[in-house]
Specification:
With 639 residues, the protein is an alpha+beta fold. The chain has four domains: 156 residues, Serine Threonine Protein Phosphatase 5, Tetratricopeptide repeat (Alpha Horseshoe); 73 residues, Serine Threonine Protein Phosphatase 5, Tetratricopeptide repeat (Alpha Horseshoe); 126 residues; 138 residues, Heat Shock Protein 90, CATH 3.30.565.10. The protein has 26 helices and seven strands. Helix 7 runs parallel beside helix 9 and helix 11 runs parallel beside helix 13.
Length: 639
């Protein structure tokens, strides 16, 4: 028996040599198995040169399994998983991370459990499997926080878990929650003296603040990131921070300064060679050049961004780039090309939505969403066909008139024709603008993200409840957009659905109600379709978003003499004067486009139906002259 043991060891050595395993690595592996370290750092230091070599790591795994060294087995599986993840083979990485977690659980080594759970969270996040990513990061964070006298590795991993959760909430559009977690991560980075982590969190917080319109705060955090980077000298941090500052400057009508800042880091970005950064840089430069009306240069940069984004499947950048190309062609008067770019941008937007929404939500709404989008496309196609038919009819009329009428009549007809085409074009533009303002992509994305948060937090009843409301709202908007007039009862139902969906994002803080005088039958009164939502949106985002305390919106329906009713939309916001000051301070200035469109639509209704509609917006004040809100009074004929 004693003779067999040396023979077995000799045979294993021969086998390892035949597999091309270096003798130096075998010695390191044997040493680790003999010593049996428990800390993750000890393995990292000993195996640093070999960690991404899957052949060597798989050999190490076999040796640890033969020796019953489960901690070493966990480390080996983790390193093999990391190698697969680094080349984008996420499913294979998940497989090996799961084996690593099993080995870590078997060894009851909590440090390895925290590390591997974090790695699983990161991998699922890269796969955009949001629920699984959030679950593993939360497990890692909770386990790390439960450990008394944690090692440095556990403190770092706790911070990584918190940062990972922040990134997930940012991906979902829940910027307030994301900022809370990034702030926690920033504090821990300060305790650990992690400058790179601090710079990264400064950038994360800046991007979240920019997303919610707080550009002053965003600029401060971008500057903090640059200051933290002075010691490190990271080109990546420098590029991302200056890119973010340029984005804010462009929104502040400082396009020339933004372009100069972008050009100062463009060469550095190209030298860095990171395709994701390059795609975003080219996109940003293209956008700023578009603002400056330098369309040819803008087009060149946007096409470069599209080329990189298509290779990397970066649908968000593709959506933005094609939208900017649409704006360029529209400004040039090339409406056919503009429509083609708009459709391509919409395709990218749909891909983003399909990727970000979990399978559960997709199964529930994909069919409905597809039908709604098809209806929208069909509606636009029908409008185009109508325009084409009218053009053909007018050409025929022009040809007959040319044969029958004298030169003076021909000149009058041409003038009339030009007026008619301009009117049709204006009507078509108003209808399209109305539909786009109702189907705002930001509203759709934020609503779906809010519903998705309920699903991730396992609040299925709330998710289904609000999903039904959201589907019904979109269906009502699409149905109403094809009608000139609808009953007041249906318009109020649409307004109630819209406020219910928006109230999710305000955490249920909005006190909303509709009060109708008993003698008014809302089912018999016809009004132009989709005219209330722009005023509700204006009340929410300009009046109430800055209010501390109760937030109240009321719709009051009152009967007036001489065949009229008034629809009053009243809020207890900060008033128009204060709202304008807030808007001027903000970098991203929300314009009430929907209200201006509604005014034009009502003016056209007055011409077409020979009825008089009027809109009066009033500021409310208390006895001391302090603003107490805003009141919109819409006067509508009942006959």
């Amino acid at each position: 028996m004693k003779t067999l043991i040396p023979l077995c060891l000799f045979a294993l050595a021969l086998q390892a040599s035949a597999q091309g395993i270096p003798s130096v690595f075998r010695e390191v592996a044997d040493s680790l198995i003999r010593v049996e370290p428990k800390s993750h750092t000890a393995f990292e230091k000993a195996l640093e040169p070999y960690r991404r070599d899957t052949v060597l790591m798989k050999y190490f795994i076999r040796e640890c399994e033969m020796a019953g060294f489960t901690v070493g087995t966990a480390f080996g599986f983790e390193q093999v998983a990391g190698a697969y993840q680094s080349i984008g083979r996420y499913a294979r990485g998940i497989e090996y991370y799961s084996r690593a977690l099993d080995a870590a659980n078997q060894s009851k080594n909590r440090e390895f459990q925290v590390v591997v759970q974090n790695r699983l969270g990161i991998t699922y996040r890269k796969m955009e499997s949001i629920r699984s990513a959030l679950e593993y990061h939360q497990k890692a964070m909770n386990l790390a926080e439960s450990i008394e006298n944690p090692s440095n590795t556990i403190m770092v991993e706790r911070n990584n878990a918190i940062n990972g959760i922040g990134n997930i909430y940012r991906l979902m559009g829940q910027y307030g929650l994301a900022i809370e977690y990034f702030q926690r991560s920033l504090e821990y980075d300060g305790e650990l003296g992690n400058l790179q982590g601090q710079a990264s969190n400064f950038l994360n917080i800046a991007e979240c603040l920019e997303a919610i319109g707080d550009h002053d705060g965003s600029l401060e955090y971008y500057e903090d990131a640059l200051q933290a980077n002075e010691t490190m000298g990271s080109d990546r941090v420098d590029i991302i921070a200056k890119y973010g500052i340029a984005h804010v400057m462009a929104h502040e009508d400082q396009a020339n300064e933004a372009l100069a800042l972008l050009e100062s880091v463009l060469a550095k970005g190209e030298a860095l060679g990171d395709p994701e950064i390059l795609s975003s840089l080219y996109l940003q430069v293209g956008w700023v050049l578009t603002i400056l009306d330098r369309y040819e240069e803008a087009r060149s940069y946007l096409l470069r961004s599209i080329g990189i984004s298509e290779d990397l499947n970066m649908q968000s950048n593709l959506h933005s780039a094609y939208n900017y190309l649409h704006d360029i062609e529209r400004a040039r008067g090339n409406y056919r090309e503009a429509l083609a770019y708009y459709k391509t941008a919409e395709t990218a937007r749909r891909r983003i939505a399909n990727t970000q929404i979990s399978n559960y939500v997709t199964e529930m709404i994909s069919k409905s969403e597809a039908e709604e989008r098809m209806d929208q496309i069909k509606f636009l196609n029908q409008e185009n066909q109508i325009v084409k038919l009218k053009l053909r009819r007018n050409r025929t009329t022009l040809l007959v008139g040319a044969l029958l009428l004298v030169l003076f009549t021909l000149i009058l007809y041409i003038l009339y024709r030009q007026y008619q085409l301009n009117s049709e074009k204006k009507m078509l533009t108003l209808e399209q603008s109305m539909l786009r303002s109702q189907m705002n992509p930001h509203f759709l994305f934020n609503s779906l993200n809010s519903i998705k948060l309920y699903i991730i937090n396992n609040e299925q009843k709330n998710a289904v409840h609000y999903l039904n409301k959201f589907s019904k709202l979109v269906r009502k908007i699409l149905e109403a957009s094809s009608l000139k007039e609808i009953p007041l009862e249906e318009e109020l139902e649409t307004a109630v659905l819209y406020m219910n969906i928006e109230n999710i994002r305000f955490n249920g803080e909005i006190d909303f109600a509709v009060e109708t005088e008993p003698e008014i039958n809302t089912s018999l009164i016809k009004i132009p379709s989709l005219i209330l939502q722009p005023f509700l949106e204006n009340a929410l985002w300009h009046g109430l978003s800055s209010v501390e305390g109760p937030k109240i919106i009321r719709i009051l329906i009152r009967k007036e003499p001489q065949g009229y009713i008034t629809i009053v939309i009243r809020d207890n916001g900060i008033g128009r004067e204060a709202a304008e000051k807030v808007r001027e301070r903000r970098v991203l200035k929300r314009k009430s486009v929907g209200i201006s469109i509604t005014r034009e639509r009502l003016a056209n209704f007055s011409k077409d139906y020979q009825n008089r509609y009027s809109i009066d917006i009033r500021d409310l004040h208390d006895e001391e002259g302090n603003p107490t809100g805003t009141e919109v009074v819409l006067k509508v004929p009942t006959v």
